[in-house]
Amino acid sequence: MRTIIITGASGGLAQEMVKLLPNDQLILLGRNKEKLGQLYGNHAHVELIEIDITDDSVLEDLVADLYLRYGKIDVLINNAGYGIFEEFDKISEQDIHQMFEVNTFALMNLSRRIGCRMKESRKGHIINIVSMAGLIATGKSSLYSATKFAAIGFSNALRLELMPDGIYVTTVNPGPIRTGFFDQADPDGSYLKSVDRFLLEPDAVARKIVRIIGKNKRELNLPVLLNLAHKFYTLFPKLADKLAGETFNYK
Ligand SMILES: NC(=O)c1ccc[n+]([C@@H]2O[C@H](COP(=O)([O-])OP(=O)(O)OC[C@H]3O[C@@H](n4cnc5c(N)ncnc54)[C@H](OP(=O)(O)O)[C@@H]3O)[C@@H](O)[C@H]2O)c1
């Protein structure tokens, strides 16, 4: 039986991933145990842990305890994250620190703490749920994009460092998904409305993620159209900026 950790476990994408992993030992991390219990109380092999993932000393103790009790972690899915779609001058210093704590630093801290254990056992897979916003920056996503670009940079280097030990590191970079993410990112619903026809469904994204567990896949960029847009953005940055700033400026 594989042992899989998922952070941000009460989120929309996590809920769909959990449904697809009935035969694995799941360790689900979230901010509210009661909420986790309501969602996953009936799951056969699950441990629910209420935790502040932004506190690295708590992560250190958690990892030590999990390895004592389970002996191994096969898969770490760093899924916790949030966004605020706002103009750069409306973002506070507190927002900057808090979003980096969750989207970037917690992902880095958990990856390095579990990555070094995986390195010892020469086995494992770290899957970082990042975002298309970490590959293509658009207006009103300066902070969110910055946290996600950093997460991709970290993951790309980590992949190279862990490659000789047979450990895989994958970044998952989806475009907009129909989840509660937008309650906070886009409270008035205007962005959601403008991208409604492009929205990915969380069960479809979860299926694609679950399928690559244990596979040596560098990145999973979704949907195909945004993956192409990312390639275009890399090849023709000036033109891409023009398009992102004018024609495709949805936020
Ligand atoms: N939805 C999208 O359009 C979209 C697109 C691309 C990438 N993503 C990324 O996909 C991942 C999953 O998001 P989702 O769509 O499933 O959104 P979601 O339903 O809002 O779930 C995200 C989960 O992350 C955790 N989280 C949120 N804010 C947090 C905070 N301040 N501190 C600690 N944990 C926090 C929460 O889990 P707990 O309540 O259990 O702590 C939350 O349920 C995120 O990393 C997000 O950035 C989402």
From TrEMBL:
Example of a GO cellular component annotation carried by this entry: membrane
PROSITE patterns: ADH_SHORT
UniProt KW Hydrolase keyword: yes
Alphabetized UniProt keyword annotations: Glycosidase, Hydrolase, Oxidoreductase
Pfam families per the UniProt record, alphabetical: adh_short
GO molecular function per UniProt: beta-galactosidase activity; oxidoreductase activity
EC number: 3.2.1.23
Keyword Mitochondrion included in the entry's annotation: no
Family: Belongs to the short-chain dehydrogenases/reductases (SDR) family.
Protein name: Beta-galactosidase
Taxonomic placement: Bacteria, Bacillati, Bacillota, Bacilli, Lactobacillales
